[in-house]
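Input record (Table S2, row 607):
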Amino acid sequence: MNSTVDADDRRTLVAELGFDPDALRKKYREERDKRFNSERNAQWTPVSGNFSHYADDPYAEQKLTRAPVTEQIDVLIVGGGFGGLISAANLRRHGIVSFRIIEKAGDFGGTWYWNRYPGAQCDIESYIYLPLLEETGYIPTEKYAHAKEILDHARRIGRHFDLYSAALFQTEIKEMRWQEDLLRWLVTTDRGDKLHARFVISASGPLNRPKLPGIPGIESFKGHSFHTSRWDYAYTGGHSRGGMTKLADKRVAVIGTGATAVQCIPYVGQDAGHLYVFQRTPSNVDVRGNHPTDPIWAAGLKPGWQAHRTENFNILVSGALADEDLVNDGWTDMMRDLISSLLPKAEEEVSPAELLRLKELADFRKGNRLRDRIAAIVKDPGTAEKLKAWYPMFCKRPTFNDDYLPTFNRSNVTLVDTEGRGVERITPGGLVVGGHEYPADCIIFATGFETGTAYTKRSGFEVHGRGGETLSEHYANGLRTLHGFYSHGFPNFFILGLSQNAFKPNIVDMLTEQSAHITALITHVHSHGLSTVEPTAQAETDWLRVIQEKSAEARAFLAECTPGYYSGEGDVDKGLLVDSYGGGSLEFSRLLSDWHSTGRMEGLRFT
Ligand code: NDP
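Output record (NDP complex):
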């Protein structure tokens, strides 16, 4: 609604809606402004130097010993998470058998290898989140599988496609160098390996480096501390479904209230002597409604069901209409709320400005419902008020949990709201907020993962392309790719990820689509007796222009957002989602399939 609407119209609108959009918009702005941190993406304490132990692997049973490997291979895959596993399975299915998977962890699993915190669970329905279910003959035991089951499925894929024989675990890449004379990448590792690969697929994941908050005094804390992605069960006792008996006499502080914290706090609250939850920005917490898999439903599934269900979900969460809602959960409901229920019928013409206005109203409605939900569950009105989120739904990853809010009714749990400023100081014995020190025996950092930093910093190695140019140099003024997959001067080097291609809430579906595209290209080069493929400089420039043009709406939205990693903590250019394809995943899929169907491989140069 704009300011030209006169007072009477405005009163009528407020009466019709049951809320005042102007007042809500003002409240959202005030709450956002409170949270701006002038250090933006530099506010974090890097997990290096004295803090590097926060990234150590607490799960590997033993340090593997092996001799260095020197070999010639067709494909080198970086990362043994779902992106790497799906890619390796695709290679096997296309008859490419000479490949290696390099993984710094002790096993496959990626995100699910590291994130074993109590309560860890997928937030996308498992029937569409866990990949390759039909191929491996597996049906998840519940609608939202817990972490151990997801990790076990990653291992199942590893066994089913015989990927263990190709894996080099507990191995970190040091660097990659393109050798123009051999038309191969030379990949060296911290174990002295020398792998000469024709192709590289980089699937190191967008959220792989834990980060710590830049709170003054963080180094002075004398108690115990760890990051949620390296859960210290030796200290807490128990396992990923609770039972942390060693916390019974401990004062535990959890810093952060994002998607991870929302899942682990109910378990810590149950087991800790006292739990202090330090909140800077509350999450939106919607209903979860998990349930065991119905065996009759599972028995009736027809071949092709997983792709069909995945596509149906993707259509609905993209804001398009479908005849049915197969997943029917908080995500599809949210989009129905956000778009379908308020939009005029599809055939009617709606101006872009009107569309934005309707989306905003739908978002306000959903926010109001979630705020009412808090008031209905959390008994103490002061605590309930502090738990309310005041920002548009997709400024941060929305969360779904039925146990988080009731945790704040427990007498051993205290919410310490920092009024958007964050914890002021950490002392040897506790944490300071509002001048008050809260004593703690243990601090659990639920503070997320590094984003917005250089690609090569997050992946942990440099890539030297043709003529010695590094990927860091190539990306010095921002990412430059064609379709997000490859860059000029870096032949046969493919990236799976979120940047410059389409973001989907179901990341595994996104990786599946990307991997199919990459495998098709590798197979093309392989089967046509070609040597290399890379985009032309012009194609890269053209794609950058498309990404920039298409990002206008996302930029405007993120600029209004409360700070977070989606919006680069207020520096929108560094936001995780700002350089995703702004036309959305349905449009991007069509674009890719049209690109394939011409057979011209436009923008690519083959040798
Ligand atoms: P996030 O980055 O989302 O959250 C970090 C939290 O730490 C925020 O609440 C942040 O507050 C808080 N924080 C940071 N600095 C301070 C400070 N100085 N004082 C107080 N609080 C502070 O990380 P998560 O690990 O929660 O989630 C990361 C992503 O991982 C999710 O967005 C999601 O994509 C994924 N995930 C997926 C799950 C799934 O089910 N598939 C489950 C869990 C995570 P503020 O918001 O103010 O910045």
